Amino acid sequence: MGLFDQLNTMGHEQVVFVQDKATGLKAIIGIHDTTLGPALGGCRLWNYASDEEALTDVLRLSRGMTYKNAVAGLSLGGGKAVIIGDPKTVKSEALFRTFGRFLNSLGGRYITAEDVNINTQDMDYVAMETRYVSGLSNRSGSGDPSPVTALGVYHGIRATVAHKLKRDHLSGLRIAVQGVGAVGRYLCGHLAEAGVQLTVADIDPAKTQAMVELYGAKVLPVTQIHAADVDVFAPCALGAALNDSSIPEIKATIVAGGANNQLAVEQRNGQQLLDRGILYAPDYVINAGGVINVFHELKGYNAEAAKRQTATIYDTLLEVYAEAERRRIPTHQASDVVAERRIQSLRAAASLRHSYDNQPWLSR
Ligand code: NAD
Fold this sequence. Notes:
The protein is α/β, with parallel strands linked by helices. It has helices spanning 3-10, 51-71, 93-104, 120-127, 146-165, 182-193, 205-215, 266-275, 283-286, 289-299, 303-310, 313-327, 331-357, and strands at residues 14-20, 25-33, 39-40, 43-46, 77-84, 110-111, 174-178, 197-201, 218-219, 232-235, 254-255, 279-280. The strands form two sheets. Strands 1, 2, 3, 4, 5 and 6 form a six-stranded mixed β-sheet that branches. The chain has a six-stranded parallel β-sheet with strand order 9-8-7-10-11-12, with helices on both faces. β1 (14-20) and β2 (25-33) form a beta hairpin. α5 crosses α10 (289-299). The chain starts with a helix and ends in a 7-residue tail after the last helix. The structure holds nicotinamide-adenine-dinucleotide (NAD). Nicotinamide-adenine-dinucleotide binds at residues 145-146, 149, 178-184, 201-204, 207, 222, 236-239, 258-260, 287, 290.
């Protein structure tokens, strides 16, 4: 398929290639859809094997952000940037400031933030050159989004338990958390406070030990955590936790966790969970607390307002589950339906607005 055919099929508005000889900056910015507002999504630094691989990644990730921002109810479209290079050698103040200057040329159509291999210090450099950046360090922004992401996952687990198990509290439930890093450990705190019996696993034994000491968690090997005898399995490590070999072994009737890209093969694995009667909280819906936090930073940060909006993940998931049951489709498809419905309805509203405001012959 040719490039423009691909953009047409995936629905992208714009793709920008950026290169700067002096700093070695090579980047691609994907702007997928700006119906709801400026395209927002993180900037990923990765040593791609080829330019084609980088392009494929930015197209896929920017489209994902359109859905994530839409279903979270934000006035933001979807975009993403990838910087091509070795994270150990390519980073410099000059590179990130140059990237920031390029963002100015887009006039705010794309707003960047942190992603894989990028930290708040890198984003602070970008912010020296442009205001089209969010997710800055505590010095000037909202800081680490992980606590708010974890809070959203907690509300999402509550909603999923309410729907599947018809319980309005978590007390006495058994929950297995895979990965107790930034998101997982804050999630464990909320769950322990709610009276949950925790089982955890992590490749870093110091992190699981901390959960034992703080919350009396049980520890399982990383190879067994998905098959724990629990009510809820919460993937909070890397992607693809839900795959052909793990799904048949899951004993929980709910999968709800913070990790991105949990389904290894989206369509097949989403259907397998449905067939096994396991209710899956779509990853990009339940882990939207981080992007909601970044949105609030753009508005002028108020931590309480960010937390209040993050709590709406509860109702959004209930809407997704109702849609999935009505249409008899897996929940990851139902969340796309909910997102597309919001974009379509606002696209119609935007065209009405434009038909009045943007007519050059109107002399008001
Ligand atoms: P992190 O690196 O702080 O934590 C990940 C943890 O998983 C680490 O402790 C790591 O040792 C552990 N781990 C790695 N492989 C494992 C395995 N095979 N089994 C068990 N544990 C393993 O990252 P994080 O910020 O907590 O993010 C976790 C997930 O949530 C990622 O998928 C990320 O994309 C997603 N996410 C994070 C945020 C956020 O605000 N940080 C927002 C949205 C989504």
